[in-house]
Design goal:
Length: 168
């Protein structure tokens, strides 16, 4: 009789155990899906940045959080150091330009994405052909489980931030 009760209890709890196992697998799967790819991070950042460029940089805590969401902390620290120095950048670092096109927020085209371990590269084109346009080569690093923009370059202006990182 005791065996029948144990067998019945096991049979009744098995679907619950399977359901919990499946739910846990689904949670892990959806968490993995939530991590943006390097390409998604770059597109999201540039859409936000170009949409808000008129009021940036700002001291708003939300803007600081947004920058921290997309940009490597090392890069943010270095840009802060440069911009507070006697010789700040004379161009927008994220655009590698002094000016920008009106349609850059809506005209973001990914040209290439390459991932190698904890590093990635994404090349994008901002703007339309025959209009003001810019091609950027963006390096990203995987930091704390999220892809962060580490360096931004274009074909012409090769802003080398590492020169600022060495003591003078």
């Amino acid at each position: 009789m005791l065996r029948k009760i144990l067998l019945l209890a096991l049979l009744l709890t098995t679907p619950v155990l399977w359901q919990n196992t499946l739910a846990t697998e689904q949670d892990v799967g959806s968490a993995m899906e939530k991590q943006a790819t390097p390409q998604q991070q770059v597109i999201a950042f540039y859409h936000w940045y170009m949409t808000n460029i008129e009021r940036l940089p700002s001291a708003e805590p939300e803007d600081k959080k947004t920058f921290e969401q997309y940009i490597s902390q090392e890069t943010l620290n270095l840009l802060n150091k440069i911009n507070n120095s006697e010789d700040p950048l004379d161009a927008d670092y994220y655009l590698s330009a002094q000016d920008y096109g009106d349609n850059w927020a809506s005209e973001i085209e990914v040209l290439r994405e390459s991932i190698d371990g904890n590093s990635a590269e994404v090349d994008i084109h901002l703007g339309k052909t025959n209009d003001m346009e810019q091609t950027l080569y963006i390096s990203l690093r995987l930091e704390h489980g999220a892809w962060k923009i580490y360096r931004v370059q274009d074909r012409v202006t090769d802003i080398d931030l590492s020169a600022w990182d060495t003591p003078k």
